[in-house]
Every structure is written in C-alpha cells, then in structure tokens.
Write a structure and sequence with these properties.
Length: about 290
C-alpha cells in the first residue's frame, strides 16, 4: 500500500481494472480526476501502475504484473485461476483505498470534507472513479455543508440542511486579488503571495513560494477553497477551460471519461419566458 500511494503521488500515471473484464488493465490519465479531489491528490488517478501500453489481456502478463507489485503470490502459469482472481480483487481494494487515504492523511483540513468511508465495510466504501454517476458509491461526496455545527447535538437531523451558504467570503477576495495581480492588473506580487498563504495556512496547508504562484495554481486553489460554493463553472470559463476538449473531467459532454463541448455552452440560453416577454431579446447562439 505504501508503494501504491507513493507511485500515484510521485509519478502520476495509472491503470485501472476494467469492471466487465477483470483480467484487462487499461491506462487512465490523471486528467479525468474530478477537479476538487485532484487538487488534493496531485492530479493523478489513485491507481497502481502495473505495466506499460498496450493494455494487458494475457493472463500470464497479468499475473507477472500483479506479482511484481506484490498482489499475486501464486505460480505464473498463464491461467486465470482463483489465485489470479483474488489478486485482482486485492488490487481493486487497494485501488479504492489509495485516494481515500491520501485525503485522510492530508494536513490540509479542506481535504477531509470528502466522504469515502474507506474505514468501513468494503461493500460500503466509495470508489474514486465515477464510472456511473447514478450510483451513490461512485465518487466521493462532499460533506462541506451539513445541518450541524460545533454546538449541535449528535441527534441533529441531517436530511435537510439549513446551513448558511457563504455568498461573499474573504478567502474568495484574497484569491481574486492574487489572480488580478498575475493577470497584470496591478497590485503587489508580495501581497498576492501573502493572501494566498493566508488562505492556505487557515486550513493547515503549507505555504507556497513566489515561483509556485501561477494562474494554474490559483485555479486549483479556488477548487480547494471554494468547492461546492458555486464558483467552478465561472472559474473554468474565465480561465478558458470550460468548453472545448483541452480540459476534461468525468461526464463532461455526457461521457464517462469526458468529451469536448462546443463554445456556446459558455453562455446559458435565455429562458423562453423572457424571450416571450421581450420582443427585442434574441436567443444566444447555439440554442
């Protein structure tokens, strides 16, 4: 398990076991990791690297790959036997735990706002990859907003949350300032760095230095800090990463691995009721 986590964190390439063909391993790039989780895990899918391309179909190659990484203890005989099945299952279990442990072990307290249940029964642990967005156990839900606070009794109802929703936050303003400085809008680079570190240090994340402060870092930091606060879509549009195919995430374009979407999605359509009420309005292009 230690090697598995180190490999994910340090090298950033990965494989997954195809659910319908458990002897078949295929490559998974770090780009299909949900943004908020990727921001805490280094952008790499939390799955062990077992071999090189092409995908493994041969049972002997699968056994060799699993044995190399310590999952398979049997004889390499090229057959898909019970021992191979058990090794594949162990691989899947370790695979499911890796990213959950990364989040749980992170000193950044914001990483702990994702629920994985990785210490619970195996059947109730959440999968990192969202293979089916309709399944509750696919993906890590966020527990950022809940119907409790530090004064609430343990019996407080959780089904309907009346938690106040932050519309304006100082952390958002600090990150706005840093982004504006990086975009050439004036201001102090030193103050921008201080503001970003103020945001990070509040959640027990480590400070960064001036060479780390880039626009890409700001986008990731906004994902960490403002997750589930309604900013992500407009942030991606502003950074030129919402439409097109250069930045993919699971189920973008109604595709499990993400697909390009046309640029007119940068704007919402004008509601039909508004069009009907005002003859001078015209629908946005593409709708």
């Amino acid at each position: 398990m230690n090697w598995l986590i180190a490999n994910v964190k340090d090298f950033g390439f990965s494989w997954e076991v195809v659910p319908e063909e458990p002897w078949h391993l295929r490559y998974v790039s770090g780009d299909n990791v949900p943004a908020a989780v990727a921001a805490f895990t280094g952008g790499a899918a939390p799955i062990a690297n077992l071999n090189t391309t092409p995908p493994i179909h041969d049972h002997k190659a699968l056994q060799e790959a699993l044995k190399l990484k310590g999952f398979y203890k049997g004889q390499i005989n090229g057959t898909k036997d019970a021992a191979t099945d058990a090794a594949v299952k162990a691989f899947k279990v370790a695979n499911k735990l890796a990213s959950a442990q990364q989040l749980a072990n992170s000193p950044d307290e914001r990483a702990h706002l994702f629920f994985s249940n990785y210490t619970g029964p195996e059947a109730k642990r959440h999968n990192f990859e969202m293979t089916d967005y309709k399944k509750w156990l696919d993906g890590f839900p966020s527990t950022k907003f809940r119907n409790t606070n530090f004064l609430s009794p343990l019996s407080a109802p959780l089904k309907f949350s009346n938690t106040d929703f932050p519309l304006f936050r100082l952390a958002d303003v600090y990150l706005m300032y840093a982004e504006a400085v990086l975009r050439g809008g004036g201001g102090s680079n030193g103050l921008a760095l201080q503001y970003v570190n103020d945001v990070r240090n509040r959640s027990n994340a480590s400070s960064i230095n001036s060479s780390d402060l880039t626009l890409d870092f700001i986008l990731d930091e906004r994902a960490r800090e403002l997750n589930f606060e309604g900013h992500r879509r407009s942030d991606l549009i502003r950074f030129g990463k919402f439409t097109g195919g250069s930045n993919l995430w699971p189920w973008k374009g109604n595709n499990k691995d993400g697909a390009a979407i046309p640029s007119h999605y940068n704007l919402f359509p004008i509601p039909l009721a508004a069009l009907g009420a005002n003859q001078y309005l015209t629908q946005n292009n593409g709708y």
